[in-house]
Structures are given as structure tokens and as C-alpha cells.
Amino acid sequence: MSRPHVLLARAVFPAVVERLREHFEVDDNPADIIHSPAQLTARLQGKAGAMTTGSERIDAVLLAACPELRVVANMAVGYNNFDIAACTAAGVLATNTPDVLTETTADFGFALMMAAARRMAESEHFLRRGEWTRWSYDMFTGSDVHGATLAILGMGRIGQAIARRGALGFGMRVIYHNRSPLTPEQEAPIQARYVDKATLLREADHLVLVLPYSAASHHAIGSAELALMKPTATLTNIARGGIVDDAALAAALHERRIAAAGLDVFEGEPAVHPALLTLPNVVLTPHIASATVATRRAMAELAADNLVAALTGGTPPTPINAAGLKR
Ligand code: GLV
Questions:
Q1: Does residue 287 register a pLDDT over 90?
Q2: Cα of 77 from ligand 1 centre, angstroms
Q3: Would the CATH topology of 5-98+293-326 be identical to that of 102-284?
Q4: pLDDT tens-digit profile of 180-210?
């Protein structure tokens, strides 16, 4: 029996490519070329599976042109690059990589929040520019993280991991808003309090966004929401670009309506809103919250596990739409 053909849409660890070659005819992408939708459709011809990242959009148009496709394995926990309803309608299993990146991503979110609160990037740039000629008592004074109110929008696995760091490590008071509240058993160890979104914004010393992107969360933070925040507050986004209206955020930072921001994700990335690039009070990183060697390996292995199981009669460990496909 001929082996299934799969596409690795982006470059990935060579050991993972070799592992997949044990099961499949693998079309890989060691040059890491980013394909246009037309190029991706062309390369998917005859393929039963694909390993994708956020740069590949899997939608109804592509699926209609790739009738042999049976599984798309995203190497990311977020999957807003997938039209899940279209995948289910086309009988295509979609999978993602939850859990393996939770703690690593929470570490980075916390670091970005601290960097914004304590003005780390701004003061480092000052030093590198050779402007540090004398010390003064109010030089780069920021706001405390310990003991402050940590406000989390989106209290899934990563939100809870950030809340644990804040409550247990830094004595922070944790408030959160989510589609549904945690159970009392989940809230108790971190003394987290569920509040409505307006209360979250008003009471936040440090607001961290960890919610999935969808039409419903598009511009969940815009000028109206920013207007509710304290002028001393910080905002950190490690979720997805598009959850924040970047132009509105840049204006709020410029006018010091909030103190600072830490952003790992951007609307239209890798392009970054030009106003953000000129502001001193924002820490900018290129979508690297899960980027440790160990975690990126674990993500790639989990995506490979999903691909192998889906195409060899096994049970994919982390399916997104398996229930929908069964119906
Ligand atoms: C990264 O952004 C991911 O969703 O894993």
C-alpha cells in the first residue's frame, strides 16, 4: 500500500522531519518559504496531511481545492488560521498543540508584564544610546508588580498559569474575566475573583490578555476599553494581534492614558503599527512567547503525533474538531 503524502508547510526540527519520513512521503520546506494561498494549494495537491503554523490559512476555498486532505496539524495552540467549521464540513481533522506550551508562555507573559511595569526596554535603550551620565532619584521609576492587582482577560490554561505566578510568587491580587468563571476549587488556591469586563479594566494595575482570537474578540480592547483603565496601568498582550486595536493603544500610550504596554503579537504581524515603533513606553517582541528550545520541540513532536495518529488509524492526542467529525 502506498504511503500517505504530507506537507510540512514551514521548516521544523530535522529530527521531526526524519520521524515523519518513517510513516509518510514528506514534502518539507527547509528553506522556510512562506507560501501564498495559491502556492499552498498547489503544494497540497495529493497530500493527505499538513503540518501548519499561523502563517497558513486553512479555509473553505483552500479545502475545496484540496479534496485529498484529511488532517491539518497546527504547530500552535491558537488556531485562528483555521476555519474550523469549514474543516469539519470538508471532513478534515484539525489539531493544535495545547498544554506543552502553557508554562513557557506564562513565563514570557509575566516577563513582558514586568518589563513594561519596570521600564526595562526603555531604560536599556537609554543606556545603549550613551545617555546615562548621572543617576537621579526618579530615573525610570515604574510601578510595582508585587502586591499589585493582576487582571487577566481570558482565564484558560495560560491565564491560570500566569495567575499562579502572580498570586503565589508575587503576592498579587488576581481578578479575571472569561466566558465562564473558574470553579471555586480552581479559584481558591490563587484567590482569583471573577469580575465583569468593565471592573477588570477599572481595577487593573497590570492587565494581561490571554484570550483566543475570533470575530467575537476582535478589538476586545479599543479606545473605549482603554479609557476605563488607570493612567498608571500596564497592558500586556501575548494572545493574538487583532484582540487589541493597535492604533487606539498607540494613542493611549502616547497620551499617557495608560503607563506602558508589553506586546508580543500585533495586528497584521510581522508588520507593526508604525506609531508603536516610535513610543518609548512599550516593549515589543516578535511573537516568541512559546519560544524555548524544549517547548518548540514539544510542540513539533505533538503536531507530528497528531499527524501520524490521524493518518495511521490511531487516536490523535489533541484534536480540535473530532466531535464534529463524528456526527
Ligand atoms: C502561538 O501563538 C500559539 O498559538 O501557539
A1: yes
A2: 5
A3: yes
A4: 999 999 999 999 999 999 999 999 999 999 9
327: pLDDT strictly greater than 70: no
Q: What is the pLDDT of residue 326?
A: 78
Cell of 75: 504547530
269 annotated active-site:
yes
Domain 5-98+293-326 bears CATH identifier 1.10.600.10: no
pLDDT of 148 over the 70 cut? yes
* CATH architecture of the domain formed by 102-284: 3-Layer(aba) Sandwich (3.40)
* Ligand 1 nearest-atom number relative to CA 299: 5
Residue whose Cα lies nearest atom 4 of ligand 1: it is 78
CA-proximal residue: ligand 1, atom 5 (nearest) = 76
Task: Give me 233's grid cell.
Answer: 496601568
Please check the confidence at residue 1 and state whether its pLDDT lies above 80.
no
Give which of 284, 298, 273 is closest to 102, Cα–Cα. Answer: 298
Query: Rounded distance, CA 137 to CA 135, Å?
Result: 7
What would the grid cell of residue 80 be? 485562528
Report the distance separating Cα 243 and Cα 45, nearest Å. Answer: 34
Q: Where are the domains of the chain?
A: 5-98+293-326, 102-284
